[in-house]
Amino acid sequence: MVNHMLLPKAYKTTVEEDYWHLRQHVQIWDVSCQRQVQIEGPCAEELVQLMTPRNISKAKVGDCFYLPIIDGNAGLINDPVMIKLSNNKFWLSIADSDVLLYATGLALGRGLDVTVSEPDVSPLAIQGPKAEDLMADIFGNHIRDIGFFKYDWVSFEGTKQLIARSGYSRQGGFEIYLNGSHLGSALWDRIWEAGQRFDIKPGCPNLIERIEGGLLSYGNEMTRDNNPFEIGLAKFCSFEDDVNYLGKAALSRIAQQGVEREIRGVLFDGDPCPTCATPWSVMVDEVEVGKITSAIWSPRLKGNVGQALILLNFAEGGQKVTVKVSDGTTRNGTICLLPFD
Amino acid sequence: MVNHMLLPKAYKTTVEEDYWHLRQHVQIWDVSCQRQVQIEGPCAEELVQLMTPRNISKAKVGDCFYLPIIDGNAGLINDPVMIKLSNNKFWLSIADSDVLLYATGLALGRGLDVTVSEPDVSPLAIQGPKAEDLMADIFGNHIRDIGFFKYDWVSFEGTKQLIARSGYSRQGGFEIYLNGSHLGSALWDRIWEAGQRFDIKPGCPNLIERIEGGLLSYGNEMTRDNNPFEIGLAKFCSFEDDVNYLGKAALSRIAQQGVEREIRGVLFDGDPCPTCATPWSVMVDEVEVGKITSAIWSPRLKGNVGQALILLNFAEGGQKVTVKVSDGTTRNGTICLLPFD
Asked: Of A266, A275, A295, whose CA–CA distance to A208 is shortest?
């Protein structure tokens, strides 16, 4: 369940089979749970900027910007992708927390001249090394010219649809922001048919690939107890004078004082680990130096891979640790930078 | 799934068996998904008032107030129960939408001196005609003096816990707002043991009882497309000068112009109806006059009961209608006022 919607995850296959397939071919993912928060009106840019430390005045129409959204204490509320549709109209393609009501509250509290709404837009992701060939086959070669985190438009059944080079994997690909859910089945079928010669399969964000690739998950690696600096988002934090956002004072203090913990990878041994439902302690000697929040067996690295916030003193690559896994075992592990190679 | 938590619903029994039991005995419900939004600080009352048309200056410490929360267009965002803990501290015990981030956004946007947080409080409901005897048995006779929608305190394992005479049924009972989730199993076991001689059973909000009783469900009978007047909450809408809330202008217009639709019961014939997953049309001649949003077979009334927003011209009790049920059948029905008798 993501944003009050089901995310289809299982198609008569295993996470491991999906992983190998995603790295070699192309997959179609129903990620319509990535809801859009539409912010439109004369104060739209002001409202979006209020929510994020990233300087969005640098975004042009046609850009997708990955944005940390923070609260007054610089705690992370969400990490959406912003789509700049026009100077007065933005979509935030959100992770799993209710930005719609947060943005509504902010706009009402501030008295901003904007409309905050959830349009009938359902993203569909096409991911994997053959995604570009497949998309070009269907929509024409111009989609090859779309840069990373840029978008363009394609025609489908008499409508214009937004297509971005983005997606929640490191294998390359696109997301179609389908406007009009009644077109969902037709779009799926069209791609499915054309995808046959590329060995297309249905899929979903793959846990092995995401952890290896260093992609973080809101609600797991980051919550409101974390700030952007802890999870490697310093490059998206602007302190320029004319960038006005909530939590700027708190974030400045953090920038000056530094953080205690940072996100890292942990490679650890033993049998394939169980699902990490509650965080697992990462230990050095008898001291807890961090917690693993996501983990899985990597068939490629032939070890378990996890993501964890680690105390800086113990966060250098190569640091030896032990991991207390929820099955009662203690595993030997090593800290590494993300992504895993 | 309610407020990002699972609501336990099935205990090896049927909704119908639970219904009869709830009306005769006592049930224990894990409704910890009713999360608390805690609003504390010098501007706490100002922030809560901003969110609701109900005049909360009339609430005393010890009161529970049912509150519609509305947006700038008077659309319903939630319908929580407010607990006034002190003049500067309130809990909103929420229905299924994210008031935490809405209140956070409002407070930040308005620059109010409050802290908005989610405390470790997990409500447990004790519902049914024997609830009072059971609670008195465990916590003492003073709980008999707690008035409807009032609260008091009880001692449990060295802690003080809030107990209110409230709950999502019409059979009477209490809700314990357990502060400290580590005490959950001990509290459950204590009530379970003492409840044996009252024929206690585990349960959850009962769909038959709720529909018959005219209790509405956020996300079903009301969404942001509805206003308080449509769903019978006019008595909670204040237009006094010193009551300041968002959406007041929009709500005043609605009060003056009147609404087109109002919530009603529909009693309809035929076999026990399926689950109402998407709204069913209510017809008079060939015209749609409303939509049923919740429905179920009532073994007591020996008919199907539903709740629907009905065009006012067709909303009088006794109005004959037909219902287009999702199983393809058309049923004969009659409009009635809520609750069903």
From this structure: A295
